[in-house]
Amino acid sequence: MWKGLLSFGLVNVPVTMVKATRSKTISFNQLRKSDYSRIQYKKVASDGAEVPATEICKGYKLSEDRYVVISDADLEAISPKASRIIEISDFVKLEEIDTRFYDNSYYLVPDQGASKAYALLLRSMSEANVVGIAKFVLRNKEYLAAIRPTDNVITLSTMLFADEIVQTKEIENDLPSNVELSDKELKMAQTLINSLITKFEPEKYENEYHKQVMAMIENKAENEMTVSTPVDTSPYFVDLMSALEASMASIKKNESKKKAPRKPKSKSA
Fold this sequence. Notes:
One of its GO terms (molecular function) is double-stranded DNA binding. Homodimer. Interacts with LigD. By secondary structure, the protein is of the alpha+beta class. The protein has a domain at 2-24 and 80-162: Beta Barrel (Ku70, Chain: A, Domain 2), CATH 2.40.290.10. Helices cover 26% and strands 26% of the residues. It has 5 helices and 9 strands. A 7-stranded mixed barrel has the order 1-2-6-9-8-7-5. It has a two-stranded antiparallel sheet with strand order 3-4. Strand 7 (130-138) and strand 8 (141-150) form a beta hairpin. It is extended and about 65 Å long. It starts with a strand and ends in a 10-residue tail after the last helix.
């Protein structure tokens, strides 16, 4: 999904980024009970009129009836430019990072010829028990990232920025205060907690609901409890898939513009 250089100091490690997680969410489509037709998602204005994609623009809400209209050109002018370098700017101790900052995780695997530099960074971070902090751009969005060793691979975890974390002082009025706890209560609670302390083994925690839903779906499918969805033949069909396809076309168009050759910059003396 991304190929580039992982850089620390003057060392550049060619890597490929791959997902470290997979979603197990089960999604359903909405159907009409009478004939199991697929429900369409249409975009309509406040007057109820359907609005084609060409007539839709972005607006940032200032108040109940005031918006600032933002064009694609406005966003393009300040959009961060895609980079092929993830440059580690700092190394910090692993225990200093609040786990609330972690978001999505990816593996960085070495490209051909990068094994030695990759192994050097992996082992050095492991022995120092440190995490590399970097910023990079992926799909026109800037990310803060933590680069850390996990088992025998370098893991990149995208992180939330500081202003995206809800500080506890913002909810302090909802938290208990001046609660008196007796020594007996504390001792019993600590005894219970100690009796449950064990080594963390993620494999023993399974998504039981996901398994039950999939088993139910498979059972219905095997027993031919399925329905056919009528084919939509209307000339103008706007649903979620159409919106996604339009979005992808827009992204590809923007990417092709960025790949267009640019005039070389004049070298300064």
